[in-house]
Amino acid sequence: MWYPGHIKKAKGKIKTYLKTVQGILELVDARAPYASRAYEYDDLFKNKERIILFNKIDIADESKLKFWEKYYRDKGYKVLKTALKKVSVRSFLTKIVYKSFPKKFSELRVMVAGIPNVGKSTLINSIKGKKALRVGNTPGITRGLQWISVNNQFMLLDTPGILYSEIYNKKILYKLILIGSIKPEEDEKEFAIEYGFNFFKEKYPDIIKKALKSDSIPEDHIKFLELFAKRRNFIATGNTYDIERAMSTFLKELSDGKYGKVVYDYPEDYDILK
Ligand code: GDP
User: Which residue numbers delimit the CP-type G domain (predicted)?
Assistant: First the structure.
């Protein structure tokens, strides 16, 4: 879980460092391009050049992304799509990201932002190496954020991932659990899986079939979890199926994209978009 205190602190850091950057590279998980955006960033980031980077495109159902791409473009943001794990990050940054910001900056300084698990470390670590440097002490900040130089015209600022301070919609919570951004509380796990199961049954039955390595679709998530445990031989004491283990394994493999491509966000899920 996340803690409001941490979020406040992370936000404070972001605010302080915002003055030093001209642009924002905001990562979202392409499987949930709306839910995986901490919308609370919006007022922090206004007046900055902004790119929304749909990451993990390799495990997203690209055909469902048109709406979201337009949605962000209409807000005045640039939209890029990639799979940071699959591409050469350095060349993606220099050839695509750098060129997507306006030419007016001779030295471009960009803040990398996004909620947990969207790929920020994958991006930063792949270019970090020896070039990473820690910013000196800034008053009021206990730990300096990291500047990483991509080349002598382009610097990135690594920031802590921040989440919503309050999730106003259960669907968003479940989606964030299904993509692996939030570690669920015990009681949330099953609800998230139930939500996911019903969603897959309607929109992506192949995900269920792949998870179970079977051609039939169980009637509900409880039966699904039993079959999943049975298939994997997850047995608990007393010779019952280890449903707890089935839930954790399923969630882990699902968020890693092992069962195929998916997009969880649909405009009709959000009242404000109607
Ligand atoms: P952070 O919390 O935002 O720093 O996210 P990480 O960089 O730690 O990435 C979270 C997980 O997503 C890791 O397991 C990465 O390997 C994985 N990941 C990152 N980028 C991609 C991608 O393009 N495709 C896929 N399939 N996985 C990715």
Answer: 8-165
Distance in Å, CA 123 to ligand 1 centroid: 9
Largest interatomic CA distance in the chain: 68
CA pair distance 179, 32, nearest whole angstrom: 8
Ligand 1 atom nearest residue 257's Cα = 26
Distance CA 74, CA 67 (A): 11
Indicate whether 122 and 240 sit together in one domain. Answer: no
Q: What is the whole-number distance in angstroms between the Cα of residue 85 and the centre of ligand 1?
A: 7
Q: How far apart are CA 148 and CA 156, in angstroms?
A: 5
Query: pLDDT tens per residue, the chain (274 residues)?
Result: 455 677 777 778 888 889 999 999 999 999 999 999 977 778 888 889 999 999 999 999 999 999 999 999 999 999 999 999 999 999 999 999 999 998 877 899 999 999 999 999 999 999 886 444 444 333 333 345 789 999 999 999 998 877 777 777 899 999 999 999 999 998 999 999 999 999 999 999 999 999 999 999 999 999 999 999 999 999 999 989 999 999 999 999 999 999 999 999 999 999 878 7
Contact criterion met (CB below 8 Å) for 40 and 164: yes
Residue 137 structural domain:
4-158
**Given 158, 191, 210, which residue is the final one in a domain?**
158
What are the contacts of 244-247 at 24+ separation with CB within 8 A? 247/189, 247/190, 247/193
Pocket test of ligand 1: the residue of 29, 37, 122, 179 to mutate, having most ligand atoms within 8 Å of its CB, is 122
Distance 58 CA to ligand 1 centre (A): 11
146 and 244 in a single domain? The answer is: no
Do residues 174 and 203 share a domain?
yes
